[in-house]
Structures are given as structure tokens and as C-alpha cells.
Specification:
The complex is a heterodimer of chains A (204) and B (378).
Chain A lengths: L3 H15 L5 E5 L5 H10 L2 E6 L2 H9 L4 E3 L14 E7 L8 H11 E9 L4 H10 L23 H10 L3 E9 L2 E3 L5 H7 L2 E7 L1
Parallel strand pairs in A: 1-2, 1-4, 2-3, 4-5
Antiparallel strand pairs in A: 5-8, 6-7, 6-8
Chain B lengths: L14 E5 L3 E2 L5 E2 L2 E8 L9 E5 L26 E2 L4 E2 L4 E5 L14 E2 L4 E2 L9 H15 L4 E6 L1 H12 L4 E7 L7 H15 L17 H15 L2 H7 L19 H16 L2 H13 L2 H5 L2 H6 L4 E7 L7 H13 L4 E6 L7 H4 L1 H18 L1
Parallel strand pairs in B: 5-8, 5-11, 6-7, 11-12, 12-13, 13-14
Antiparallel strand pairs in B: 1-4, 2-3, 4-8, 9-10
Helix pairs in contact in B: 1-2, 3-4, 3-7, 4-6
Classes of the chains: A alpha/beta (204), B alpha/beta (378).
Chain lengths: 204, 378
């Protein structure tokens, strides 16, 4: 199995691919700011991040980034409509309290939205639950049921349904399959079974 | 004095600058001439653009860093943050600190001599505002030849930094706002009002005309300081410092003298303060703080910030209830609405409002990175 660090870099490179050069980006839950810094350096983007954890905020500022400490579940009220070319939510959707509201807000503030999340429909996750009868743990989902920040886990199919219900356009989707980038070579049902992570580019 | 220390600015001296002409105050009154007490650390570069103006809090003075003499035991009020290699690095920056208008540490205030009467102004001193204080600082900055600057301040100093970023948008490159607000809460005004009432009702206050009297309104000023001190701490810090412990004993007196350690502490703070601060200055400066309201002045906070061209760093502290995080967030949200570059961090601290003078390690990390970013961009 791939190590999470590599997978992290894989999804960074997918997201970097999605983003047009010289765009204005907002990274929600930006962590220590690595992705944002990469976008600024490689794609000449401008932008900022929002992060809830003090130490991550400090680490981001130390990288020379503009980051605001805040809780994305409170919405993006201070941001104007279409203020950003891209709003990014990398590996954080499943940890938000109100994922639907967060995505709505992202679509309001960004012309395009990048969302990535671990796929709970991944076969290893399914088998873990099926055979072990316990809440699945993996390198992408390393937490115990009682201390996990991942309170809204979802599958790739769930996300497609969500977009359909709300008439959200899925512009691009890239998956990570066993530590490698996979550009949709299967039917969707297989994808949902075989891929551990999904990275979507969506818009209103 | 712990001198010489590699990261100390060493021995510093307060200097004085005189503004000969009168300045127009926000109240409409003209006032002058004026003297400004200030200190500088580091060297102004040839382009005159490496200056940082530090703005002190309610009862601060021009002496921000270093020591005044070899025997001096206490360094300036922000010595932890100012010096070679420190957050405000005097190897790189020309750091300026001045006493606020209306103060009592060298800049013209109610205790200064009114040239028209030959006696201290007392309550003839005009009511001043944060805007007026900044106007005076601007004269100093021009006198020093500074073309571009960074402004930084905690508490009331943060208010002045905000005012600077709006009033002199073309000069201000970056702004650091610590434990501050764009307007004091009703609760904050209430505490200031109690402080002022303590002074005003002191029998020795004599309508502000007490400078040549035998007795000064010391009790009133001490009580004002005690009230102030309660607001600078928090429940947690008071509990940690004093708990319910008795002072120098283990049982109560059953009288109204000092029983508890916390009482003794407040009494001490009050007494120490009386020796270094003027009651009239306390009235004028707290009033200036109470009046400050950017949203009211500019229509909204967003409109206030539309003029600024600076990038911002805003910091608050978890246990600060006098200048709570919610108020820093108000500033941050308005800056975002106005499309400005802003970073914000709420620092974990058990020290209440006082944290901005105590939690220097975390602040140093953040301030250094924030300033370094500006240096890269040039």
C-alpha cells in the first residue's frame, strides 16, 4: 500500500494540474500551507488559506502565506460571490460538520471548486468492515471510531448523487488507485470499488 | 541591568521633538505647540523605507526597548520583541516608539505647562482622540525623514495602527494588530468609566488642578488602575497567580484590611502606578480609547479599510475578554470583504489581555515570518 505522504503529493499534483496559472485561490483547511505554497510557486497563483489549528496557521505564516485562523463550518460570509477562481477543499470535506453547506459556500465564493476526499466505497474499506466487523482503518483513515475527525465519510457514488441532486456540474474527476493517478479508465461502479481517493473539479 | 546582552538594544535615550505650529484636533479645536518624546533603535536606510513604528498601550511610553542606564533594572515595555535578531529586528529595521499625545511621559499632555498661563494644563487640555494621536506621530515620522513604514501595536496601540493604515494609506506597507479592536465593547467602556469615576470623585482631584497641591488624587488613580488590572487578567490567570490564598497568613483577619493575595496584588499595582502616571492623562487617554470607532466614522468597517494599501497581521489571545477574539475577527472579516491581504492567528494563552506583553515567543515566530514576507516581495 502506498504511504500517505506519497498520496498527498499525488493529490497535490492533480490539484495543481486542475488550476490555471495566475489564478486567485482560496484553500480551505490549508493545514501547514504546502499545497497553497506549491500553487503560488508553480502556478503563480495568488490567494490565501483558512485553517482551524493554531500551529498549522503559524506554520503557514512561516511559509510566507496569508492564512486566517477560522472554522470553515461557520461559512465564508466575509467572502464575495465569485471572488476566487478556485476554492479548494483538500481531504477535509469528510471532517466538516455541514459538508453540504460548506460546498454551497465554496460554489458561491469560487468560480470553480476543487474537492478531494477518501473514498469510503474503496474495496479495502468495504472488506475491512465486512470481514473484521469493525470500523475500517487504513493509512488514509487511520483513526479509531471514537477519536476520528472524519464524521461525514462518503463514497464516490455519494458525491455524484450529491452533485446531481443540486445540479452541480462535475467538470473533471481524477482518482487515486493504489497510489497511482487514474483518469477514469473504469465504469463508475468499478471506480467506486477500486479507488481510494477522489479529486473533483466542480462548478455551479 | 542585564547588560550587555547580544540581543538587547543596550542603553537608549528618550529624545524630544517639538511641533511649533498648531494642529487641528478632531474636536475642531486647534492645539499647539507640542513636544513629542520618542526613542529609536536601529538605523534608517538610504531609501528611508525600513521603519517600524511601535504604538504603545494605554499607559505605555516611548521607552520600548533597552535600558536607560547601567543601573536600570527594568528594560522598555516591549524589550522581548525589539532588538538585534528579535521579532522587530533592529539589525534590519529602524524602530520608532513615541509617547502618545495626552500622555505623561514626555509628550505634551495635561501635566505639561500651558505656555499661555505658565501652569499645567489640567482640564484645560483639549479632549483628544486616537486620530489626533496619529496626527502627532505623523509629524514625528516626517521629521525623522521616514518615507514608508510598518506600524505595530497591541491593545490601544493596535487602534492607532489601524488609524495609521487608513489615514496614511500611501505610507503604510504593513500593519500588525495585537489584542486590539476597531471599537471598544460597551463592557470595555464601562470599565474605563469606573476608572475615570474613581479619579473624578477623589477629594484631592480638585477639578484636575492638583499639580502644585500637597495632595494628589492618588487613591482615585490607584483604584482606576486596580479596575484596569482586573480586565488585563482573566479568571484562569488570577486563579493561577493567587487562588484564594491569604496574604502572609493562613486565616482571615475578620476586618477590612487586606486578607487575600489578590487584594494585596491589586493594592500594589495601584500604588506602583500612582508613582509613574498622571490622573488627568488617565482620563484623557481612556476617553480617546472609548471614542475610537472606525465603523461609525467611515460608515462601516469595510469602508474604513477600503482606503488601506497595507497587508495585515491580526493576533488575538484565547483568554482575552477585554479585547476578545470576536473583535479581532470583525477586523479580519472586514479586511477580507475589502479585498485586503490579511493573516490572523488566535494564540492559545492563559494570560488574558496581558498576553500580548507576555507571550512573546509565539508572537516572535509569527511577526518575524510576516515581516520576512514583505522583505521577499521587494
Amino acid at each position: 500500500m502506498n504511504n500517505p505522504q506519497e498520496s498527498l503529493h499525488l493529490n497535490y499534483s492533480v490539484i495543481t494540474e486542475y488550476i490555471e496559472p495566475y489564478s486567485r485561490v482560496l484553500d480551505l483547511g490549508c493545514g501547514e500551507g504546502d499545497l497553497l505554497k506549491m500553487l503560488i510557486e508553480k502556478k503563480h497563483c495568488t490567494g490565501s488559506g483558512i485553517e482551524i489549528d493554531q500551529n498549522n496557521v503559524i506554520a503557514s505564516i512561516q511559509k510566507g502565506l496569508s492564512v486566517v485562523q477560522g472554522d470553515i463550518d461557520e461559512g465564508l460570509k466575509e467572502f464575495l460571490e465569485d471572488e476566487y477562481d478556485y476554492v479548494i477543499l483538500n481531504q477535509t470535506l469528510q471532517s466538516t460538520e455541514k459538508p453540504d453547506y460548506v460546498i454551497e459556500e465554496m460554489l458561491r465564493v469560487g468560480k470553480k471548486v476543487v474537492v478531494s476526499f477518501p473514498n469510503f466505497g474503496y474495496w479495502r474499506v468495504r472488506f475491512y468492515l465486512f470481514f473484521k466487523g469493525r470500523m475500517p482503518k487504513s493509512k488514509m483513515l487511520p483513526f479509531c471510531w471514537y477519536d476520528t475527525p472524519n464524521i461525514h465519510l462518503l463514497t464516490i457514488e455519494d458525491f455524484f448523487d450529491f452533485c446531481k441532486e443540486r445540479s452541480i456540474k462535475v467538470e473533471k474527476q481524477v482518482y487515486i488507485k493504489r497510489g497511482k493517478i487514474s483518469r477514469n479508465p473504469f465504469t463508475r461502479l468499478f471506480t467506486n470499488f477500486l479507488c481510494e481517493e477522489a479529486i473533483f473539479l466542480i462548478q455551479k | 541591568m542585564v547588560y550587555p546582552k547580544a540581543d538587547s538594544v543596550g542603553i537608549t535615550r528618550t529624545k524630544y521633538f517639538t511641533i511649533q505650529d498648531r494642529i487641528l484636533l478632531e474636536s475642531g479645536r486647534e492645539f499647539g505647540p507640542l513636544q513629542v518624546a520618542y526613542e529609536t533603535y536601529g538605523t534608517l536606510n538610504d531609501k528611508k523605507d525600513n521603519a517600524i513604528l511601535l504604538l504603545h498601550a494605554l499607559t505605555g511610553d516611548a521607552h520600548a526597548a533597552g535600558y536607560h542606564s547601567e543601573e536600570d533594572k527594568k528594560p522598555g515595555w516591549w524589550d522581548d520583541m525589539v532588538g538585534p535578531g528579535k521579532a522587530f529586528d533592529t539589525n534590519k529595521y529602524f524602530v520608532i516608539s513615541s509617547n502618545m499625545l495626552g500622555g505623561c511621559s514626555g509628550t505634551t499632555g495635561p501635566c505639561s505647562i500651558n505656555p499661555e498661563t505658565g501652569r499645567p494644563y489640567g482640564l484645560d487640555f483639549p479632549v483628544i482622540t486616537i486620530e489626533d494621536a496619529v496626527k502627532v506621530q505623523k509629524k514625528l515620522i516626517d521629521f525623522l525623514g521616514v518615507k514608508r513604514l510598518i506600524v505595530a501595536g497591541g491593545s490601544m496601540g493596535g487602534m492607532q495602527a489601524l488609524e495609521w493604515s487608513i489615514a496614511h494609506a500611501d505610507m503604510v506597507e504593513a500593519v500588525i494588530i495585537i489584542a486590539s479592536t476597531s471599537r471598544l465593547t460597551a463592557q470595555g467602556i464601562a470599565f474605563n468609566a469606573v476608572g475615570r469615576n474613581a479619579i473624578l470623585s477623589d477629594p484631592d482631584f480638585n477639578n484636575g488642578d492638583y499639580y502644585d497641591k500637597e495632595k494628589q488624587p492618588e487613591r482615585g488613580l490607584a483604584i482606576a488602575r486596580m479596575v484596569g488590572h482586573i480586565t488585563y487578567l482573566c479568571e484562569e490567570s488570577m486563579h493561577n497567580k493567587f487562588g484564594r490564598r491569604f496574604q502572609d497568613k493562613d486565616k482571615p483577619n475578620f476586618d477590612f484590611n487586606i486578607d487575600f493575595q489578590v487584594e494585596s496584588y491589586l493594592e500594589h499595582q495601584g500604588q506602583v502606578f500612582v508613582d509613574r502616571f498622571d490622573a488627568n492623562s488617565y482620563l484623557y487617554i481612556t476617553k480617546a480609547v472609548d471614542y475610537f470607532d472606525l465603523a461609525q466614522k467611515h460608515g462601516s468597517l469595510k469602508q474604513a479599510f477600503e482606503k488601506t494599501k497595507a497587508r495585515f497581521l491580526v493576533m488575538s489571545f484565547t483568554t482575552d475578554w477585554l479585547f476578545p477574539t470576536s473583535q479581532s475577527k470583525e477586523i479580519v472579516q472586514a479586511l477580507i470583504k475589502a479585498g485586503k491581504d490579511v493573516s490572523f492567528c488566535e494564540i492559545e494563552s492563559p494570560c488574558g489581555h496581558d498576553a500580548f506583553l507576555l507571550e512573546f515567543e509565539t508572537q516572535t515566530k509569527i511577526v518575524k515570518s510576516f515581516l520576512a514576507k514583505g522583505a521577499q516581495g521587494e
